[in-house]
Amino acid sequence: MVEIRVSVRNETDIGGLYLTPVWVGFNDGGFDLFDIGDTASAGLERLAEDGTLDTLNGEFAAATGVTGLSGMVSGDFGAAGVIDPFELASTIFDVDEQDHRYLQFGAMVIPSNDAFIGSDDPIELFDAGGNFNGATQITIHGSDVLDAGTEANTEQDAAFINQNAPNTGDATNSAIAAHPGYIGGENGPVAGPNGEPMTILGGTTAAGTIIDPTAGDFSRDGFELATVHINVVARHEGGADADEILGGSADDIVDARGGNDVIETGDGWDVISAGRGMDLVYAGRGDDIIDGGAGRDFLFGERGDDVILGGFGRDFIEAGPGNDFVFGGGGGDWIDGEASDDFLFGGGGADVMLGGTGRDVLIGGGGNDLMSGGNSQDIIFGGAGHDVINGDDGNDQINGGAGNDLIIGGAGRNTITTGSGEDVVVLTGEGAHDRVTDFDLVLDLIAISAAGVTEFADLTITGTSSSRIAYNGSDAELIGVAAADLTADHFLFV
After folding, report:
1. How far is CA 25 from the centre of its chain?
2. How many CB atoms neighbour CB 58 within 10 A?
3. CA–CA distance from 392 to each of 72, 355, 358, 378 (Å)?
4. CA-to-CA distance for 386 and 406, rounded, in angstroms?
5. Can you list the domains of the chain with their CATH numbers?
6. pLDDT tens-digit series, residues 465-478
7. How many CB atoms lie within 10 A of CB 177?
8. Which of 36, 299, 352, 428 has the most CB atoms less than 10 A away?
9. pTM for this structure?
10. Model confidence over 220-233: pLDDT tens digits?
């Protein structure tokens, strides 16, 4: 027997598409899930329309007998089992090198009537001699999404969002074919536009969950929906002392336990638990999950779309290239997202958070955080504490949250919400066009840091219901604040 790990990453952005739990079937080659151009089986129909697997499991068992092995890869973020945007889910299976030489998979795409992804040809994991053929990685693009042909397409209605009963669409009897594409709402998100929860497969998402007409449009050129990764598992265990653990090409499962450990894995999609102590982790290539545990750790995600948890302690986290999810945890952490589109959450403690290049989301959490968005269009939320926030380049959305914050929009067209507390918004010029949504005439201040602007008389302020502040080729808008209400006491010049 061999341990095989099947991992599925939902590659869509926040506001993108969901996947139902992914059905996985290991067999000796005697099962065929579907063929393009043929009519879907009853089991595939149930998977593609409703995300349910009972009928398909029955068909699989009838075709493979006692030698077949089926299961699923399910998510943990939101509604039970559903794999959310940005989520990485995996399941480990004990397989036989002869009885389970081949693998097939399938899942429903949400929202849709009967859109699905899957393998029409079995994936050969082992050769005839039982030797593993090496890791398999499949990138599923929007053009790979299939239409089961069993239900009329009405994606404008967001089938299966806020729909509790299965099999409620208009039945058709067409052949399996490429799906024609997503039809978004005409005036914005197709679901959740007012922040209400959605029901997906009987489970309720958090309020504010949306399917965005752009992020959810899998018919766009180059759209990446999911990545499926299949590899053997190699397990490594440390002890109470300082260990050196080296992985390889397999999906390494590392439990370092206590001690100041050095962990270096290879090209697999690895799961690393560093445990207690001051640990040094290099995760290598692949979409890895790293848990630093207790102690001050140095965690390097390196290449791949990684999930990194700092744990307790003042950690240094460098996510590396890839769309990474980083949670600093307790303690004042240094978090650098580096390249690509990252989601960074500081957690407790005074954190330093650097978005780097790419469209990043930074959430400071508790503590007095120092946050820098970097290049591109970032979303930054300071949270509790007295934070220093710099949007840097790009058109950023910044919310200071609670506490007395210093907010620097930087270059670009920025939208700034100061939040509660006595906040200072810094306008730097640089051709910026900032929009401040909640400036408080009693608590907040505007600081001008631009060449040639040294006093209140250098500003041109106009407007009645809202005010426009023009200075040295740049401007800012204060929503809900009339020009007549602004005096020199509301400004600092630095």
Report:
1. 27
2. 12
3. 43, 10, 12, 9
4. 8
5. 2-227 (2.60.40.2130), 244-444 (no CATH)
6. 999 999 988 999 99
7. 12
8. 299
9. 0.86
10. 888 999 999 999 99
